[in-house]
Amino acid sequence: MDSSWTRLAALVVCLALVAVGSVRYSSSSPARPAAKAAKAAAPPPAAPRAPSAVRTWMRGMTLEQKAAQLIFVPFNGAAPNTRSREYRRYVRLVRDVGIGGLVLVNWSNGRVIQRAEPYELAAFVNRMQR
User: Fold this and answer.
1) Contact call for residues 5 and 65 (beta carbons, < 8 A)
2) Residue 61: how many CB atoms within 10 A of its CB?
3) What's the predicted TM-score (pTM) here?
4) How many CB atoms lie within 10 A of CB 79?
5) How many other β-carbons are positioned within 10 Å of the β-carbon of residue 128?
6) What Rg value do the Cα atoms of the chain yield, rounded?
7) Nearest Cα residue to 125 out of 61, 77, 60
8) Within 10 A of 122 (CB to CB), how many other CB atoms are there?
């Protein structure tokens, strides 16, 4: 199972690098050739700097941990029994894999859309945060 997460992490990183490399700066209005040359010579705008605590935290993470932070797992808000396979799966993903988070989704029961019960949802999220 670890090798599949490693492959997934490598895929996410590769896709991110491809996306960053394919970004092009373009102007919506036509410019004169001299203005284009001046724009090409100007350096790109600097990216905003993250606070020092964030930079320190990121330096301490491995590439696999950084890629895992990009992954979010859907859940329906119903708190599974702590002895169930589903609950153990969530605990493993949060604790061992280090996923970025859980996304609450509603589920359909035929024609009716089921929504999460607030107390049950809060109890589950609190357990996952611990």
Assistant:
1) no
2) 13
3) 0.54
4) 22
5) 17
6) 22
7) 77
8) 13
